Every structure is written in C-alpha cells, then in structure tokens.
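Memo to structure team: turn this sequence into structure tokens by end of day. - J.P.
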Amino acid sequence: MSNQLLIGGVAVDLSPDTVILPSFQVSDLLKPESIQSDFSPEFSVPGTSHNHRLLGHAAWDSSTARVPYQSLPNVTLLSEGVEIMPRARLLLKGYEGGAYQLQLVAGNKRFVEALGEKKLSELDFSRFAHLRTIGNIAQRATAAYAAANGWSYELYDRGRPLDVANLSPYDLWPTLSAPLVLEQLATEAGFAVDYPADGLLPRLQVPAVAPAQYAEDFVKARRLRVDVGPDHEDDGAPDSNRSDVVKTIPFDGYIRPLGTTPPIVPTVPGVYNAAAYSFTADKAMYVQVQARTVLRLIYSTVRLGKAQARVELHVNGRKVSEGPWVSSVEMSDFEEGETNPFSVSATAERLLLNAGEQLTAVLRIAGVGSAPIDKWGFRIFEYANFNSGGQTIPGHKFEVNVLPEQPPGAEVNLAEWLPQDMKQLDFFKSLVQVCGFSVQTDAYEDRLTLRPSRAVLDNAAYARDWTNKRDAPDLPTGQPRSVAYRFGGFGQRNLFQWAEEESVRKGYGNGTLVIADETLPASYTLTTLPFAASERSTAQPGLLLIRNYTLRENEDPFVETEYDSSTPKPRLTLRSTRTQQLSLVEGAVRRPVEGPVSYFVEDGEDVSLDADAYILPVAWAGLGAMLTECRYHKERYRLSPRDIAEFLAEPNVPVWDAGLQGYFSISKINEYTSTRSVEVEMLRLHPSFLVAPEPGARGEFAPAEFHTQPTRPEFF
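Reply from structure team:
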C-alpha cells in the first residue's frame, strides 16, 4: 500500500481497497474567488474501533459522539513515506456499510476559511490611534512618516477649492498602503505573507474615499430621549421688577404613560446624568439636539407688563444655541391672570461637542416692554399632559442623537477610513488580480507566498526536465496525446476593467488582451475590479481627483457657494517618488509639511495602474505567454512522490518536455498515485516570452528554444 493517512500524527486504518487519489492544482489568476486548493475525491476507510476513536465516534448516535460532518485539521497524506498533502483538512461526509466516507482538502483553503466574511472595517489598527488634531495630522502627513509606517495623511482634490499654502488639516484624510492592509488581515487570520519587494504591491495604496463615521452601535449606545417627571414643578407669583428666571430644565428620564413614547437612555456610563440633567460627550462628536418644555405665565389682576420665554442650549454653562422667544402678548386666552400652557423649544442640527463637554437645556423667562412696574410670574416643569383650545400641546422632551460623521478631535481608527462594506477576501482577491499574483499556502506553516504571473517565465532557466518521465504513447516524437487550442472562457478581446465611476472618463485605465483566434467569442471580461480608476485633477495640478463634493448649481451669484457630497467608489493608487510642500493652518497655528503624492499613471514612473500599459503586459505576462498561440495539453507522466513534493514547494517553476519541444506551466495534476502514470494538465509558454538562459545554466536545453529578444502579445 503506497498511501498512508495520519490524523494528528496517528495512522488511520486503511482497507486493502482504500484508494486515495489526490489532485494538485495551481491558483487561478482569473478565479481568485475560489483560490483553488488541492483535494482528493471521496474515499472510504473501515469503521474499526481505532478509526472510530480518531474520527470522534462520528458514526455513533450516543451522547458521547461528536457532531458528524466535521472538518478535522492537522491531517497528512503520505505516499511512499513522502508527505504529499501535509496539514490538510479531512472532511467527514458520512458512514455507510461499515465504512466512513472521507475527503481531503489542502493548500489555500485554510487561508480563505480564516478570512471568512470579515470586513476591512474589522481590522485592528489600534497601534496607530490618535486624536484628529492639527498637530497629530501634521506629524503624520509627511512622506517620511508614510515610508516608515505604511500610511499617512495625504491630500487629494476632492472637488472643493484648495490652497496648499493655507490648508485646513481636515482636508487631509488617511491613505493606507496596500501591504499594510494585506499584512494586517493576514496576521489576524493567523498567517504570515511573503510578496515581491518590487513591482506594484509595495507602492500600492488605498486612499480614503469617505470621512470616517461612527458605527451604528456607537451611535445607538449614546442616544438620549427623556422627559420631565413628577416632583419638579416650580412656580413664582407675580412680582414687581422680576429679574430673568434662568433654570436648567430637569429632564430626568421619566416618561408620562399616556400617549408618549418610552425613554431612551445612553448605555455608556457617564453620558447621561439624571442628577445634573445633562448629556456629556465621552468622545468628540456632532449631535442633533431638540429640547422642549411647557410653561404658563401668571399676571396680577392689574396685568402690568408682559413676559416672554425661550429654551437655550448650554455647553459647560455657556450658551451655544437658542430657540425663538415666545411672548405672552401672543397669548389670546387668559384665565384669572394666567396664560394657557404653551411650548418653547430649541434645536441644533449639528452641534460639536468635544470629549468631556456637558450639554444642558435651559429655560429663560424675561420681562418684555418698558412698563414702570413689570409684574409677572410663572408655572413651569409641570407633570401633566397639556391642551389648549382643544389642541394637544407638544410636551417636554430632551432628545440627543449622535451624528455618524466624526468631527475634528475624534479618535482616529484607520479601519474606519477603509471601504466599510468591502470584505477582506474581496480586497485580497483584488490585490491578486491587479498585481497578477499566484497564491501559494505553505504546506508546513501558516504562510502565504504571492508570486507574480511572470515568475513562471523567469524560472524557465530552472525548469524541471520531465522528458524521461513522459508515459509516451505510440506516436511520432513531438506529437501530443491531447491538445486543445483554447482553455477557459476567453474571447478574442479580453477585458480588464476598473469599476465605472461618474467622475472618471468611461474606460479610463481599462485594458484589453487580444488573442488571435477567430474561433473564440468576440469578447470576454477577465475581471471588473471593485475599485475605480483615478484621473489627474485639472483644478489642482499634481493631485489625483477623488470627487467627494460637487458644486451645487445656483443662478443667484450672491448666494453662498454650496456643495453636494457623495461617496465615490473605492480607489487604488500608487505612491509617487515626488513630494509636495503644504502648509496646514488652524486658527493661529501653522504647520509646514512635505507631503507624499500619489498617482495612477505618470510619465517617468516604472509602474502604472493602466491595464494596457502595465498590468496586462507586465503583471499578467505569464498568462499572456499561455494564451499566445495557446496549446493546452493533457499528457501522462510517471511522477514520484518527490516530484509532487517539489511541485508543491515551487509551483511556479515550469517543466521542460523535449519530446514536445516546449516549456509548460502546470495547471493541474489529476488523481495522483505513484503506481501508474497520471494525467497532467499543462499550458505551453510561448517562446516569444522566454529569454535565453545564461550560457551553461542548463546546457541540455537548446538555445534555439529561446528568443533572445522577447516579444509581447498585442495589447490595446
């Protein structure tokens, strides 16, 4: 028996007819959503007492049995003593006829499962937490800081006028490097990640496209809606020359049971103070406020003078907003010198509270007019439902809602500046496609290796010679057993597309890989990224445009300029070698900054995000070599377990077959066993993409097989 199966290092009992035929496949650049894994077809092992224990008694119905259909980790498949599927997962499919039905999966599956449904907004960048102030922004807005930390504050044209010599620090939003995001999501998934030190990824960035917002849970936990309860009634008899009456309205959370809604009190300790009747911000925030109370004014029978009332909003005892005065002269009904009850209120649509500031609602009653003797009194904070003239009067209410937008002074969490709805796996897949990576999960440790598509071309000088391993049929030399002139769903024009964005020219940055094969469909979409391209600003030379604000049209030239806001599609940009001089200003504070600059396409830079100019011909060069005059072979080879182990360790090393006179990238090895030849699916690398090796590097290969001046397929 050539195979051995271990669970946690303990061998599983196999029957004489147990056949385990694993297949091995390379990650598909065009299908990063599947990030393909090695696997085996279902196989059976006998239900021995030893296997029952190893498999957790999954076939039992007793209460001691583990849940069936489980996935067991730390499983190894050996062939002739060589590990060909280390650290695989064993899927328990069922139990029938005294045998367990099992299946093995390995490779990239571990990483995909670890990411699951997690979003970018869940990443932990707490090590970079700081308050959003001019000093902190200036410190983190330099090119040097970006190089050292993988992120910085950066300036983009967002649709409103900018003066780089007099910038608000809050015009700069965080931009995170793609490697920083990649390494963080990999670390939180329990993986290390290796990637090339040059090319696109080290300079790829994710700029913020929307201001950070507080999460729904944050907002909900600080919502306040309270009323005036019993035991707070206050009154004053009509007095001569009365001074203003100023009283904090005693909102205390009590809600009258009739015709009212229940109170809502913040769940965060210290935010609502029922003794001081106040709302205290625990962090910097914008709040929407409505405060309302009901009162009556009282006059002597002589009715000398008049009075008025209003509600004010105070922060730390200082008035910041006020409602309109309501005067007794407006009251048409008096009963024995007393007005009918009436309501006064104050609102604030967007009030800034800094951390620790205390908000209260205050009632002010004052005399009106110039009578020699003002005689008026009041009755306030009554616990009652109010009616006047048959109409219900709105009752007492103090309502505070936190707005999602984070203001200056808020604590910065970098994850809140990333695309909030994007899944970590979708972000990873986009990096794979933009950079043209193949993905390999290490067989022995939780480590990802990302290799560029062209690695299979660069490794041609080190190709494995499988000539003598070929199980050749009785055919003339060089004739393949099975060859197709296409693979996958490609067309004659294969489209690489950035997401459409209203503020970006249609098709900007897109590319087309052309295949000279008239039998193919007219077109095929290689990928449509969730990121949009970014054009240069015409209003701010040197900057990229990410339009968050659009000038509102108004025919009146004297109306103050207004802008409509929107959230653009997520972006990917590249860090330029250029910098720019900025001056951040807030009040009397000025901070000079040498800031980084980003680009999408730029003359003089060695990498670009233009699909025609760089991504397809350079980052996707390996795929181009496979599609040019495509030959998709299915050949049979007799491979040893050592050959499989070498392939798993370096899947980007091509093979050479002298019988076929070509270099081939291995796509898949089907149902491997060391006892017979196995089918290998392989794609020829077109010679025009291959550079001849150094003399003597692999003397057995004929130099004629290489083109010393490599060409590229046609890209439009």
